[in-house]
Write a structure and sequence with these properties.
This protein has 259 residues and is α/β, with parallel strands linked by helices. The protein folds into two domains: 111 residues, Cobalt-precorrin-4 Transmethylase, domain 1; 125 residues, Tetrapyrrole methylase, C-terminal domain (Methyltransferase, Cobalt-precorrin-4 Transmethylase, Domain 2, 2-Layer Sandwich), CATH 3.30.950.10. It has nine helices and twelve strands. The strands form three sheets. Strands 3-2-6-1-7 form a five-stranded parallel sheet, with helices on both faces. Strand 10 and strand 11 form a beta hairpin. It is elongated and about 60 Å long. The protein starts with 6 loop residues before the first strand and ends in a 12-residue tail after the last helix. It binds S-adenosyl-L-homocysteine (SAH). S-adenosyl-L-homocysteine binds next to helix 5 and strand 12. GO terms for molecular function: uroporphyrin-III C-methyltransferase activity.
């Protein structure tokens, strides 16, 4: 540990495949004194840390917070004040449902230098590698990323009434546990039951599973595959592009690799 003024890098690790991290993020991992990492970050990436780096598992499984958000803020601040180069490593992009904004605010409020290194968010990475374009000429001119979870049991602030019509493709994060009520909301607000849906579990990882169906039968699909976290729900006509691509045979390679 060094004595000079420290810094915190809030870093996105990408959607799962360790090769889908940015060059900048990899550089930050390699030079960190301390890495505080989340559950979604693959062990392969931590192998690039310096041998003497301190690795802190902030591991937040759903409903089982290993470290509270406040404890994470305190740890980031403490390590930085000790003069360390600190990496806060998160799955996907740190500012997309990653609470990176709260961490940046906590650091800024204490006058601690920080940097944000963007990452490929899972909606972008998992959909593209599954052959689902989020926009597609003539089919989808917009997409929205949406949380499917509620804040501590409250209704989420999500306007399903507007989203049912306001964005062509919907990508729903953290929605697996509430799939039935999300489907009901969309149907209630006039989204046709025939709208194509894809479920992507552990996208871009070697254990990735993808199924496609419709809004009407998505719940059955999820049950039959025993869908689990982390998973994304993609709703919209562009899901058909994946189905079309698969009609052409095996052109879409799965490119999981080692960073
Ligand atoms: N910051 C992350 C999102 C964190 S919220 C990002 O930018 O991707 C956690 C949710 O992200 C999960 O519940 C799941 O909906 C989604 N997610 C993250 N990684 C995923 C993956 N590899 N495959 C499918 N969904 C994923």
């Amino acid at each position: 540990m060094r004595a000079a003024a420290g810094i915190v890098h809030i870093v996105g690790a990408g959607p799962g495949d360790p090769e889908l991290i940015t060059v900048k993020a990899m550089r930050r991992i390699r030079s960190a004194d301390v890495i505080l990492y989340d559950r979604l970050v693959g062990a392969e990436l931590l192998a690039y840390a310096r041998p003497e780096a301190v690795l802190v598992d902030c591991g937040k499984a759903p409903g089982r917070h290993a470290m509270t958000q406040e404890a994470i803020h305190d740890a980031l601040i403490r390590y930085a004040l000790e003069g360390n180069t600190v990496v806060r490593l998160k799955g996907g992009d740190p500012f997309v449902f990653g609470r990176g904004g709260e961490e940046a605010l906590a650091l800024a409020a204490r006058g601690i230098p920080y940097e944000v290194v963007p990452g490929i968010t899972s909606a972008i990475g998992a959909a593209a590698s599954a052959g689902i374009p989020l926009t597609h000429r003539g089919v989808a001119a917009s997409f929205a990323v949406v949380t499917g979870s509620r804040r501590h049991g409250e209704e989420a602030d999500v306007r399903w009434d507007l989203l049912a019509h306001g964005a062509d493709t919907l990508v729903i994060y953290m929605g697996v546990g509430r799939l039935g009520s999300i489907r009901d909301e969309l149907l209630k607000h006039g989204k046709p039951g025939s709208t194509p849906v894809a479920l992507i579990e552990r996208g871009t990882s070697p254990s990735e599973r993808i199924v496609t169906g419709t809004l009407a039968n998505v719940q059955k699909l999820a049950e039959s595959m025993k869908l689990d976290n982390p998973a994304l729900i993609v709703v919209g006509e562009t899901v058909r592009v994946r189905e079309l691509l698969s009609l052409y045979g095996s052109g879409l390679a799965s490119g999981y690799g080692q960073a």
